Amino acid sequence: MSQLLRVTEPDTHQAEDPVLLVLVARYRELDLESAARLSVVASRIAPHLTANSPAVAGSVVLSTCNRFEIYCEIGPTWDVDAVRAAALEAVSHCSGVPLLQLTTLFEHIDGPSVAEHLFSVGTGLESIVTGEREIAGQVRRALSEAQRAGTASGRLIRLFEGASRTAKEVGMRTTLSAAGRSIAAVALDLATAGGNSSSLSGASVILFGTGAYAGCVLDILKSRGCSNVLVFSRSGRAQAFATARQGTVAALEDLPAAAAGADLLIGCSGAGARVSASEIMPAERKGHHPLTVIDLVPSRDFDSSVEELPGIELITLESVRRAAPKADAETLCLAQTLVRRAAHRFAEQERIRVVDAAIVALRQHIHEILDTEMERVTQQHGCTASTEEVNAALRRMIRQLLHVPTVRARQLATAGRQDEYTAALETLFGIRLLPGSDGESGHEPHPELEPVVPRACGPVRGACSRAGTSASGVCPRLCTVPAPGANSMA
Known about the structure:
This protein is of the alpha/beta class. The chain contains 16 helices and 10 strands. The protein has helices at residues 32-52, 80-95, 99-105, 113-122, 134-149, 154-173, 183-191, 212-223, 238-244, 255-260, 277-280, 304-307, 317-323, 329-381, 387-414, 418-429, and strands at residues 19-25, 56-64, 67-74, 106-110, 204-208, 228-232, 248-249, 264-267, 291-295, 312-315. The strands form 2 sheets. A 6-stranded parallel β-sheet has the order 7-6-5-8-9-10. A 4-stranded antiparallel β-sheet has the order 2-3-1-4, with helices on both faces. The longest helix has 53 residues, at 329-381. The chain starts with 18 loop residues before the first strand and ends in a 61-residue tail after the last helix. Residues 1-15 and 439-490 have low confidence and may be disordered.
């Protein structure tokens, strides 16, 4: 008997698929200190969670300038609320943020709605600037980081790859991101009072940060004609970042002098340590022209004391939120429709994967039985087995195949659930039992097998014991009784 198929008692509870769960932080309700802590420890949460919670098969953390989400795949036997509690415990352990505070700041989504949520996030529909382009790259990087850390399960990989495909589809079929929407672009529009890209030509900028987001901001600056960019970072990665992008590094001791002649300071590191007023206080502002500070991370790259400096204009994410252009209603509706369709396709494909696994198991089970019988015939008769002996082996195989379904049928009938069995026959094999087919034909069923669907059982040696044998020697029914002369143990 195949190891993939076992006889068990009928279960009244149908097996369920693994469950997807996402915890979403309401970032606007996070205080700056807590937001900074979460941002810094984002990469540690998924490994800690998967290592310490047996219910979590995989986890991916999506941490951006305005978003912090924890995606989990959990087994069907685990309680969602228990896993949610374990995830919050992992966040608290890694960040030091009190568990009670996190409980009120995170909401969760589970089941099929998780795919629609992530697909919507990945297309920029949930962003401060609707349709922003950077979020799609951040979704891809979140998956890559989880794969490197070994925390991305198969279903989560397919989920995030589906989000990337959906973002591409929405980008190709709508104009949602055609206008170059992004948080950084809107912030620069505010800084240049009108969004004239040529107004950044010749501007002096100090960029704080060396991550992927800083790279995106630098690309936007270059596209607007800005080539005079100094890069500062406390991480020690500024030199490599600047060299790869043909930029210049600013040391800590050079900041006051550089800020004295700068037009823009842009913070996009989210490293937790904020730049203070004393670090950028110039001895004397050149030309006394105003300085614009753009802070693009919720945890803030600049200390509040910077805003108090004379001649400083501060642009934050809240400023961007208020100034963000509204998406066209028709375009927005189409994008949302594409997201819903993609989420529906993802759910269908996941259900098909479960069926595919069942089909593979069934095929393997049948082939194992066939191999066993053919090996038995070969061992007993070598290559000289007669048609009769081969037929006997095939009948043994049929008995093995139908044994479990027969036992199931009787167990379900005893429980009053025989209609489920007949419905399953019609669903799987197209067999529909006609009225009056319950034993009225007059012959008794085999002690192990119910009557089976009429089908030719192949050539037999001698006459069949039942009426209706064709002239060709092929039984019109699949016989469950040996033909004359056959092995009686068949």
